[in-house]
Amino acid sequence: MTELLEKPFPPADDDCCGGGACNPCVWDHYYAERKKWRLQQAELKAAAEQDKAPTQD
Question: Would 29 be classed as within a structural domain?
Fold first, then answer.
């Protein structure tokens, strides 16, 4: 089974310099981690709904 990801928290106000020169920016990292978390949540929801679906024998 895949490890469950924790929902990422956005960077604190003082984590970003606001200069736009950092590569990757702390916001880039946050958005990438949030995307992975959201995809995993969607997969888990789909699997749960599939498990609830009545079977036709």
Answer: yes
Q: What average pLDDT is seen over the chain?
A: 90
* Structural domain count, the chain: 1
Q: What pTM, to 2 d.p., does this model score? A: 0.78
Q: SS3 letters for the chain?
A: CCCCCCCCCCCCCCCCCCCCCCCCCHHHHHHHHHHHHHHHHHHHHHHHHHHHCCCCC
How far apart CA 55 and CA 30 sit, in angstroms, is 40
**Residue owning tokens 């699997």:** 47
